[in-house]
Design brief:
The chain has 287 residues and is of the alpha+beta class. It has one domain (2-285). The protein is built from 3 helices and 15 strands. The protein has helices at 2-19, 47-59, 250-267; strands spanning 25-34, 36-41, 62-70, 73-80, 105-109, 114-121, 124-131, 138-146, 149-161, 165-167, 185-195, 213-219, 222-231, 246-248, 280-285. The strands form 2 sheets. It has a 12-stranded mixed sheet. A hairpin with a 2-residue loop joins strand 12 and strand 13.
Length: 287
């Protein structure tokens, strides 16, 4: 395994030496999908409506993004905003907590190891600026082709909160979640597939740091797969760092998000005496 990795690194070094003399850039298209466990309970909802609501919720977590990159910088943003679940009639209401907008932009500078992320959260624009967190990747010898590109496997482990039910039905007899209780943590292995044929240490979302562009990610119930790559397009791509929004550090933004999420969950939590005969639902969302 070590021999194979050394061969890959040596080959990558040779490629980079050639590419460095060029104005290297590209655009990669990624499809993302997050598995979501959905339960919808209703005495008033027929099978057809039930299937329609489940499909609407699933589409909320299927999106297309584009990564525009050069040797040192990149911009990652949603390419097409899919239809979001609509609020139903008086008997059914869908509430998406903390869902980002299609205008969010993630800029990364891998040379300077920093990022700027413009995020539309609950109708307010934030500009999150901080250092890129180093990922302790373990390079493997396993390989496969994604399209025309030979890719190699890499993994790392991280601690994440265990999955908790986000919303409950109004007639759920179980005890409500204590929103102030810290969630239990568990270890998760993240798997990436990268190609040294595209010599940039970058990738979709906040995944980077490998000797080649990351084309596929498996992180819990989140899957990101590259569907198209255009290298050195005829029209030069523009990579602009976002500047709009209230500037905050990553830790501060996470505190704001946690507070807002608790407020929203409390606001829409079913109360005793609410309509027990109406439609209701619950979602269990993986990380």
């Amino acid at each position: 395994m070590i021999t194979i990795i050394r061969v890959v690194v040596l080959a990558l070094t040779a490629v980079i030496s050639t590419v460095n003399a060029q104005d290297f850039q590209g655009v990669a298209t990624y499809k993302t999908q997050r598995q979501v466990d959905i339960k919808i309970d209703s005495a008033k909802m027929d099978a057809g409506m039930h299937a329609q609501m489940v499909e609407m919720m699933k589409k909320q977590f299927q999106k297309t993004f584009k990564l525009t990159f050069n040797k040192e910088e990149s911009v990652y943003k949603q390419d097409e905003e899919l239809s979001k679940p609509q609020v139903g009639g008086g008997e059914f209401q869908v509430v998406m907590i903390g869902a980002g907008g299609g205008t969010d932009v993630l800029y990364k500078n891998t040379k300077e190891q920093r990022f700027s992320q413009q995020v539309d959260t609950y109708g307010k624009i934030f500009l999150v600026k901080d250092n890129i967190e180093k990922i302790d990747w373990k390079l493997g010898s396993e390989s496969k082709f994604i399209g025309d590109y030979q890719c190699y496997k890499a993994t790392y482990t991280k601690m994440v909160p265990k999955v908790r039910e986000v919303l409950r039905s109004a007639d759920d007899e179980k005890e409500d979640i204590d929103l102030d209780t810290e969630p239990e943590m568990e270890e998760r292995t993240v798997t990436a597939w990268y190609t040294p044929q595209i010599p940039v240490n970058n990738g979709p979302d906040d995944y980077q740091g490998l000797p080649g562009l990351i084309l596929e990610i498996h992180d819990g119930k989140l899957t990101i797969i590259c569907s198209k790559i255009v290298l050195n397009p005829k029209e030069k791509v523009e990579i602009n760092e976002p500047t709009k929004g209230k500037e905050v550090k990553q830790e501060k933004y996470e505190e704001i998000m946690e507070k807002k999420a608790k407020e929203m969950m409390e606001r829409y939590r079913p109360r005793g005496g609410d309509d027990q005969n109406g439609s209701s639902f619950s979602i269990s969302k993986g990380g």
